[in-house]
Design a protein that fits this description.
It is a single chain. The chain has 9 helices and 8 strands. By secondary structure, it is α/β, with parallel strands linked by helices. The chain has one domain: Rossmann fold (3-Layer(aba) Sandwich), CATH 3.40.50.1820. The chain has an 8-stranded mixed beta sheet, with helices on both faces. α2 runs parallel beside α3. The two termini are about 35 Å apart. The model has no long low-confidence stretch (mean pLDDT about 95).
Length: about 300
């Protein structure tokens, strides 16, 4: 069943934004997101979710393989879920990745990376590196691997790209990010300018979430804030963001930094959509169209 955009925005503003502004019990917040995903997010037909464990970094990283129907192309999407580094899981995002698998013909895998505050920076990034190296060890050629993520997970995907481009790891075939959180120094103007307009994210909680993750580490470290990263030799990057989001400048400046380093990068700014609207695939026509655009990007990136 499809819903109009205005109704989803109203629900998010009146329910989710208020709840996120006052929620203090992290285990309860994590359980609530999983319940919402099960009740609200649409599972595509013939969806399959298979648990696995990656060991690319010498320690186990649980993952979920998500698909809808049989993959028709070689390659894999390595996708990092959002949730401010403190909540979210493969279970909350697997339906969206199953839909993207159906649209692109690629397999998708979601690492269950370690969350803060139990595991501070750089634990999540270490798990991301481990997942990437495991895929290569498993036989995927680097150009067959696409990195993706949303919100904090989008920042994590881009931080992983920075690590790849500044070490001897081979470059992936491309990267896409939904409303990525790329600047933990909060230097972007939209953090302030869009504080009221953003229908979902309460700006007053950002510093707390960041501090739970960084635990005293430098917020300008490009492994935490990829806005300040180096990306020599990276393949194409696609970023999608809404025009009313507090993270709009994180997306806009990230793409500008990539272009300044001669990386092919594209920013698509959508009108009036909420943070990571793509997760409402099957319920919201704008979400389905956005994922369709990503599938076209993937068709050009994985050959």
């Amino acid at each position: 069943m499809k819903f109009p955009l205005w109704l989803i925005n109203l629900f998010l503003r009146l329910v989710e934004k208020r709840h996120l502004a006052r929620a203090t019990d992290l285990p309860k917040l994590r359980r609530r997101f999983v319940r919402q995903a099960r009740l609200i997010f649409s599972n595509p037909p013939y969806s399959s979710y298979l648990a696995d464990v990656f060991c690319g970094g010498g320690h186990p990283v649980p993952v979920v393989w998500a698909s809808s129907g049989r993959p028709t192309r070689e390659g894999v999407i390595l996708y990092f879920h959002g949730g401010s580094y403190v909540f979210g899981s493969p279970r909350t995002h697997q339906a969206m990745l199953a839909k993207l698998s159906r649209l692109s013909g690629l397999r998708t895998v979601l690492p269950d990376y370690r969350l803060a505050p139990e595991h501070g920076f750089p634990a999540a990034l270490d798990d991301a590196v481990a997942a990437y190296t495991h895929l290569i060890d498993r036989g995927y050629r680097p150009h067959q691997i696409i990195l993706g993520g949303d919100s904090a997970g989008g920042g994590l995907a881009l931080a992983l790209l920075h690590v790849i481009c500044t070490t001897d790891l081979p470059r992936p075939g491309g990267v896409f990010a939904f409303s990525p959180w790329t600047d933990l120094t909060f230097s972007g103007a939209s953090i302030r300018d869009n504080a009221r307009a953003d229908p979902m994210l309460p700006v007053g909680r950002l510093a707390e979430m960041r501090d739970n993750y960084l635990q005293g580490s430098d917020p300008s470290d490009p492994r935490a804030s990829p806005l300040f990263g180096r990306f020599e030799g990276a393949s194409a990057v696609l970023v999608q963001c809404g025009n009313h989001e507090i993270l709009l400048d994180d997306a806009r400046r990230m793409v500008g930094n990539l272009k300044a380093q001669n990386i092919e990068a594209r920013l698509d700014v959508w009108e009036n959509v909420p943070h990571v609207w793509q997760i409402f695939q099957g319920r919201l026509s704008q979400a389905d169209r956005a994922l369709g655009d990503v599938a076209e990007f993937l068709a050009r990136s994985v050959r």
